Amino acid sequence: MSLRPLGMEPPPERELLCIFGTGDLGRSLGQRLLQTGYRVVYGSRRPHSCGPLPPGAQVMSHTEAAQLAAVVIVCVHREHYDFMEEVAPQLKGKVLVDVSNNSKKGLYPESNAEFLQSLIPAASVVKAFNTVSAWSLQNGPSDAHRQVFLCGDKAEAKQAVRELATRLGLSVLDRGSLSAAREVEDFPLQLFPEWRLPLCIATGLTAFFFFYLLIRDVIYAYVEQDKDISFRIMVSLANKVFPIVSLIMLSLCYLPGVMAAILQLYRGTKYRRFPDWLDHWMLCRKQLGLLALGFAFLHVLYTLLIPIRYYVRYKVTAHTVISKQTAVFDTTSAWRTDSYFSVGILGFALYVLLGITSLPSVSNALSWREFSFVQSKLGHLTLLLCTLHTYLYGWNKFLRPSTYKWCTPPGYMLCLVVPSVVLVLKLLMVLPCVDRSLGRIRQGWERTGPEGEGTKPLMA
Amino acid sequence: MSLRPLGMEPPPERELLCIFGTGDLGRSLGQRLLQTGYRVVYGSRRPHSCGPLPPGAQVMSHTEAAQLAAVVIVCVHREHYDFMEEVAPQLKGKVLVDVSNNSKKGLYPESNAEFLQSLIPAASVVKAFNTVSAWSLQNGPSDAHRQVFLCGDKAEAKQAVRELATRLGLSVLDRGSLSAAREVEDFPLQLFPEWRLPLCIATGLTAFFFFYLLIRDVIYAYVEQDKDISFRIMVSLANKVFPIVSLIMLSLCYLPGVMAAILQLYRGTKYRRFPDWLDHWMLCRKQLGLLALGFAFLHVLYTLLIPIRYYVRYKVTAHTVISKQTAVFDTTSAWRTDSYFSVGILGFALYVLLGITSLPSVSNALSWREFSFVQSKLGHLTLLLCTLHTYLYGWNKFLRPSTYKWCTPPGYMLCLVVPSVVLVLKLLMVLPCVDRSLGRIRQGWERTGPEGEGTKPLMA
Amino acid sequence: MSLRPLGMEPPPERELLCIFGTGDLGRSLGQRLLQTGYRVVYGSRRPHSCGPLPPGAQVMSHTEAAQLAAVVIVCVHREHYDFMEEVAPQLKGKVLVDVSNNSKKGLYPESNAEFLQSLIPAASVVKAFNTVSAWSLQNGPSDAHRQVFLCGDKAEAKQAVRELATRLGLSVLDRGSLSAAREVEDFPLQLFPEWRLPLCIATGLTAFFFFYLLIRDVIYAYVEQDKDISFRIMVSLANKVFPIVSLIMLSLCYLPGVMAAILQLYRGTKYRRFPDWLDHWMLCRKQLGLLALGFAFLHVLYTLLIPIRYYVRYKVTAHTVISKQTAVFDTTSAWRTDSYFSVGILGFALYVLLGITSLPSVSNALSWREFSFVQSKLGHLTLLLCTLHTYLYGWNKFLRPSTYKWCTPPGYMLCLVVPSVVLVLKLLMVLPCVDRSLGRIRQGWERTGPEGEGTKPLMA
């Protein structure tokens, strides 16, 4: 590193900042500040044995360091905030930047930043930088976490920190007063909150269909035919469960949109809020869709694997030997199975396309109309192809009594219910008369305005 | 949401903004502005029945609201701009931010922003925020559309809106005077303009090769051998069309680059513009390549599916029974087919790599040299491997007369023409003498400068 | 383009900028500046024959142009800097922006910007914009390279250029004084520096295992059994080498983390630096993992291809005919092979998930806890599944003497060493007692502090 961030004679206009704490974050932040042209002084418990600091930085006691700068960045864990009270006189009127995070949610009654403010009431505490890691500061923001959330009660203090962050090449988002600090502090601790519900649904569906098919296939064969086909659990059964869950989850992506449209048509306005469960459901459509794609991906791999399985190789050999002359080529079967595969592949390709367009960088590059075209038009086409794929799989088995072992329908029939309903409802939605009404409602038209205009009911 | 964006006593320095309209966008924008520390007042047609507004915002009539703020954000559809004329006196000298979009292109003779300016000539209209959706404002900019295009005639008005947008965590791009508003307004309405040409080419090629191969395979078999193999349309035929279209489109990616180089060598300068069609072609290379990757992906899936097809399983069984002793293992065939598969897989893997590097977030992380290395060197290697894969497929069938049914060459021969030409030309380009000339031209050297230096022709 | 960036009467506050050079970058930069509302004047060697310039820009001689503006952007190759000395008097006290790049590293003893500063000592040289291409300036920053590195010795000069860049919608990162210019200039020339080591490791491992398996399989069969199975090189051998290299490289991803933890436990502090080789290794884990994913992808394709190979089809046919009655279905084999495949597929799916989360745009959208959950927890699960997959492949062959041809173990046994070690060590790390000690060390606790607290050794 040939960086010489400070010249021989530092020009007087370079601002001096104080950093409390010489841990990873303190050092990385100091190094970046020095590179950006600030002067940096560290405040430390033991100024003489605090390990290697970035070249160009000074280190002294907390009290001395605090006196020199107008902005003090506190890179210390909350457990060690007690020393702050001694420094309080020197911190009067200064901007205190709290960068701390907790190791768990709900450890303390109040947020770290509010606690710090209560310790030093005479300073202006600003919460910032807690979403930025030492690692990303060191390695430059080329592909690092750049978003900084800011909150605080004093506008000038926030402005000072905002400028600081902007100079560091970070992107600042103001989250309001210091009472928002709790939320800001919880942000780095969150673990896929928006994935929870979709993951629960996926797990529930997988478990249900696994046991359902286990009973219908393996246990039925054992009880009724006294055959042990338990080895089929690993691949055959999995390859039945995965496509079923995938198709149901894909249709669950598009069901709330249809329900919202029906609700808007029924109410005749778009200005009334949806019920909470529907709002919540609509917000996790992307996650539902991506999980569905994951299951579809597994289904494709399991299907392509079929011919190299020991069981299948054995069956081919055995079958060949036994049924020498019996095989007669059936063109209808060839058409049906080939269509079945072809529709499935095209559906999967569209599925992958939908997945790619929901990558943040891709969806950000799309205009709103492009995004809705892909997610709505192509999405429904994908659902149509995948549903068709499943119907072609069933073909004429729907009416054959032997299909219904122990009076239960096979898994693929169960999984066709939701997608079929979604597709039929969507078809109704795109009928010209319904589509027109919906379009007007979505542009702000209301059936029963306060002046009584437009009171004609739209649907029976 | 425990956000309390406004403290008990709002400090006087918080700026007051006025929003006309209480629709989705108006509410979301207001909420974000309140969070960021602004004060917000809504202007509404019916201030007493305008539904739920963000906590902390006031609502009053348009006239009253307009008087209070220096900046008025107009979140109203253009159809309802008529009320603006009544408010005109209060808007004199103020900054009017037009955020509107139309539902279609070309609905009105002039842009909404220019129309608004003509209604209120005494205000400074700035077009902004029309690419930002209510949804992304509500959910924070973590993966939202952040780009704001700005245009307007008054520099100070633009500066005020620029600051506003920057504070909201958005990224601002100035597009010039208000006459650019039409372009800015059309942006959210565009539907993959740069994908049009590549999609047309792909559709055209697919249709041509589909009918060509339908005639050569299915109809030929029906007419000459009286066999119905129409079921092969779904998989076998598709799996011939897709790789052909993929290879041609991949080579069409690299053809314009070679043509541009030849043109530069011929002209002896890089400072003359390419013909428009070549410019247009070069700008859609990425889209051509990604479509080609899509077709290659389908080809891989269709190929891997082969052994589980009913037709193939039948053939294996039948063939086994008939040709008991005749099968003799041919090492050359084993070498050829394995090389054919291996080269194809490696080509596809590179193809996928090229696709991944054209994701916006990946290509942005690459330096210019890295990007051109991947797209040029690896791209040509991919083309070479895929072409080789096709040659290995043909092998010794090129000279066999029975290949040419009804005197037409098979599809894979047709599709080899363009890639072979591109590869041969590219090979000529990397010859040391040509490469050196080209390098000098691209560094700004001109064969026939005004002073007459460097007049030696570079190519015959 | 209906852009009319300059109105009829340009308001006086529009700043005038001077650009030296009318090449691609000069023109594109000028066009963008004009759109953003600046006035632009070009300085050119031949003001009357310099080709098409953006509408609205003026062109004059270097001397005349330099006099008009306070900021001069030098879009000229370093080789032509000689003319600058003539213009030196006009450049006194002005901000000179050096945007140049070199075609190779180490061409000149000093950076271009420092050279320019030495030519015109009375001006303030700022290095900037060299990472931005003409292409991305023309096409807007929607998915372009936006990052601008800035360095220079004068703070006010840097501030002026920073504002300029921000207005252009670019994101600025200050890299310190002008002595950092060399690094900034080398940035666009770098060619995957962080991929070098992982690529070397991958190449080395591939070469070693290729020759090792060539000897054990092909040459052994030729020498001992006098059979020519050289055709197996293309697919069978490749499909042995790829998974081996993939598994080893995946475990090399997780080995340094385990080693670092052991080192921290041994030292009892996190404040001592790791050895350089370990630091270097830890920084290229992502690249190691992505290469491993690439090899795994190839392994999957090669495996799924097996049944359509000529050799396999031949073997199936031949085997069928010969072993008519001998085949007995073995349930254990069915369980084993199906588990082997199933575990492999699940491992690969997790592998792909890891790959997707390391896309810059995805990893930026994750909180720190989410990222470490995916990369650490899911990463080790992937390693576990892939190792299990390999053990299931080996099954009972570990103890069979015939496996050890020429006294060498098969490739898959060799490749199990590193992952097994990593997994065992990781298992030790998550034991409650070790985990607790490690957690305390990582929160800043030190075993032998200066005051002597916490001196209990943690591990024997």
Low-confidence stretches of chain A: 1-12, 449-460
Strand order of the largest sheet of chain A: 3-2-1-4-5-6-7-8
Q: Kindly report the oligomeric state of this protein.
A: homotrimer
Which of globular, elongated, flat, extended, rod-shaped describes the shape of chain A? elongated
H/E topology pattern of chain A: EHEEHEHEHEHEHEHHHHHHHHHHH
Determine the fraction of residues in helical runs of chain A and give it as a percent range.
40-55%
Rg of chain A computed from alpha carbons, rounded to a whole number of angstroms = 32 Å
User: What do the pLDDT scores of chain A average to?
Assistant: 84
Instruction: Return the structural class of chain A.
Output: alpha/beta
Strand-residue fraction of chain A?
5-15%
Helix count from the secondary structure assignment of chain A:
17
Largest interface: A-B, 64 and 70 residues
Number of strands of chain A: 8
Descriptive tags:
Rossmann fold; 8-stranded mixed sheet; alpha/beta; about 450 residues; homotrimer; about 55% helix
Describe the structure.
Three copies of one chain form a homotrimer. With 460 residues, chain A is of the alpha/beta class. Chain A has two domains: 16-189, 3-Layer(aba) Sandwich (Rossmann fold), CATH 3.40.50; 193-442, no CATH class. Chain A contains 17 helices and eight strands. In chain A, helix 13 packs antiparallel against helix 15 (368-394). The longest helix of chain A is centred in the middle third of the chain and has 30 residues, at 196-225. Chains A and B meet through helix 6, strand 8, helix 11, helix 12 and helix 13 of A and helix 1, helix 11, helix 12 and helix 14 of B.
